[in-house]
Specification:
globular, 5-stranded parallel sheet, Rossmann fold
Length: about 160
């Protein structure tokens, strides 16, 4: 769990989850390198851009102290499970799950390794959370691509 909080602090400083200006003075442990497993459901311009933005932000913050193990499931949800289990076996420091099946597979594979989701429309539905209040909890966090429905209705 200590690894989770250290890596989450670094990610917050990088502005990936939300902006925290107080993190500007905090530096990652220079003696530690991190391995990040990236599981992406399928090659697609939007998903590729999300993965690239994530990688670029971590490299900007950590430089050569971060290594990526990037896998693409080629649109096959069962492959997402194999990828997630491989990351757990390799004991990566963090998993980026890009798209809902990748998130579901990662969440099923581990309760210990921190998981960040991206390109997820609705975490409550994706993770079958009853009475979802906007907070996943546990080792899962991330960003949602759900546009505010009231604004969409007003636009229509």
């Amino acid at each position: 769990m200590k690894k989770f909080y250290k890596l989450l602090a670094i990610l917050l400083c990088a502005g990936l989850v939300f902006t925290v200006s107080a993190c500007d003075n905090k530096k990652p442990d220079d003696s530690k390198s991190y391995t990040v497993g990236i599981s992406q459901l399928v090659q697609h311009d939007a998903l590729d851009a999300a993965t690239k933005g994530f990688r670029d932000a971590l490299v900007a913050k950590l430089g050569d102290k971060v290594n990526f193990d990037e896998k693409n499931a080629q649109g096959d949800a069962p492959t997402c499970a194999s990828i997630a289990n491989g990351f757990v076996a390799a004991n990566v420091d963090l998993i980026l799950a890009n798209a809902t099946p990748a998130l579901q597979a990662a969440a099923a594979a581990t309760a210990d390794i921190p998981i960040l989701g991206t390109s997820i429309t609705e975490y409550g539905v994706a993770l079958d959370i009853k009475d979802f209040d906007g907070t996943v909890g546990g080792n899962v966090s991330g960003t949602s691509d759900l546009a505010p429905l009231d604004q969409q209705a007003a636009m229509v």
